[in-house]
Amino acid sequence: MNYEKIKEDVKSILSEYRFNHSEMVAKKAEELAIEYGENPEIAKLIGIAHDIAKEMTDEEYLKYVEDNNIKIDEVEKINTKLLHGKVGADICKKKYNFNEQMQNAIKYHTTGNINMDNMAKIIYLADKIEDTREYDGVEEAREKAKISLNEGMIYLLSRGIKKSLDKEKLIHSDSVELYNKLIMERE
Ligand SMILES: [Fe+2]
Ligand SMILES: [Fe+2]
């Protein structure tokens, strides 16, 4: 399936707000892919589809993972929203024939993961720094993403983990593992 077809399909599934975000992620992912020597067409496809499962209900997530034999952990059972990564990846594989690399980028865009490649990092960053995003620190995140993909990732993981600590919320271990890996690679 080509970009226009996937875009129309995503548009029919998501709210206007989230569809607009998805288009912005596709645009930012394309820019980052060009900057970091990855395939911009592939980045756009992943970007437009990355939140395809974001608007499902808790019940729908749990039914989907059960019906499709997707393994989930204790944290995901509680924070079901995290599942829009794994579920979205599975939907894109079955509906749009996304390959392993594309599926992984969608799978990992929620928590991060030590197995992320550059394309997955591009999607993770594009999701959080696309042009319409507004939050404390977004400008700094954009600057860090210009230094390197890893610096952008470290900044956003650190910010996310700090936020969860402040609110005494669960932190997914994949985020912590990735954070540690990137800090070690930095030395
Ligand atoms: Fe998402
Ligand atoms: Fe998103």
Key descriptive features of the protein:
187 residues, mainly alpha, Hypothetical protein af1432, 11 helices, binds fe (ii) ion
Describe the protein in words.
40% of the residues are buried. The chain starts with a helix and ends with a helix. It has 11 helices and no strands. The radius of gyration is 16 Å and the shape is globular. The chain has a single domain, classed as Hypothetical protein af1432 (Orthogonal Bundle). The model has no long low-confidence stretch (mean pLDDT 98). With 187 residues, the chain is mainly α. Bound molecules: fe (ii) ion (2 copies). One fe (ii) ion binds next to loops.
Question: How far apart, in Å, are the first and last alpha carbons?
Answer: 42 Å
Structural class: mainly alpha
What level of helicity do the residues show? Answer: over 70%
- Can you say what the CATH homologous superfamily is? Hypothetical protein af1432
- Following the backbone from N to C, one meets helices and strands in this order, namely HHHHHHHHHHH
Bound ligand species:
fe (ii) ion
How many individual helices? 11
What is the general shape? globular
Q: Name the beta content range.
A: under 5%
The low-confidence runs, each spanning 5 or more residues with pLDDT under 50, are none
Quaternary structure: single chain
- What number of structural domains do the residues give? 1
Mind summarizing the main beta sheet?
Answer: none
